[in-house]
Amino acid sequence: MMRKIALVTSLLALVAALSFAADAAKPQTLTGVVTDAMCGVTHMMEGGAAQCTRACVKEGSAYGLVVDKKIYKLEGKTDDLVSYAGEKATVTGTVSGDTIKVASVAAAK
């Protein structure tokens, strides 16, 4: 009897874990300011956030998205981000920790 209870409990825990993992893989939409992962909200270059973001990405930094006070690193479909550098944008993609695998980006409304 105890083995059956342990087996049922283990199966329920496994189903719950798999359900959580499936939810985490669903695309999410976040709105924030497009920046670079190195500077975040504090840009060091003269010329403003857009110019600094473009220069840092050109030098090898990844794009980032500042949402409230959290900075997400943007990966995947990032070619369109250059036009949103320093601007508010809506990014749709899969969030994993502090990284977003970008599926699409659009100007924030």
Characterization of the model:
The protein is 30% helix and 36% strand. It is built from two helices and five strands; from the N terminus they run H-E-H-E-E-E-E. Strands 1-2-3-5-4 form a five-stranded mixed β-barrel. It is elongated and about 70 Å long. The chain starts with a helix and ends with a strand.
Mean pLDDT: 84
Major sheet strand order? 1-2-3-5-4
- What's the N-to-C terminus distance? 59 Å
Report the total helices: 2
Give the strand tally.
Answer: 5
Largest sheet: 5 strands, mixed, barrel
Q: Into which percent range does the helicity of residues fall?
A: 25-40%
* Radius of gyration of CA atoms, rounded to a whole number: 19 Å
Unreliable stretches, pLDDT < 50, 5 or more residues?
none
Class of secondary structure makeup: alpha+beta
Strand content: 35-45%
Could you spell the SSE succession in H and E letters?
A: HEHEEEE
Shape: elongated
Task: Supply database-style keywords.
about 110 residues; five-stranded mixed beta barrel; 2 helices; 5 strands; about 30% helix
Summarize the structure.
Helices cover 30% and strands 36% of the residues.
Sequence-ordered SSE layout with sheet pairings:
Blueprint: H1 2-24, E1 28-36, H2 49-58, E2 63-67, E3 70-76, E4 88-96, E5 99-107
Parallel strand pairs: 3-5
Antiparallel strand pairs: 1-2, 1-4, 2-3, 4-5
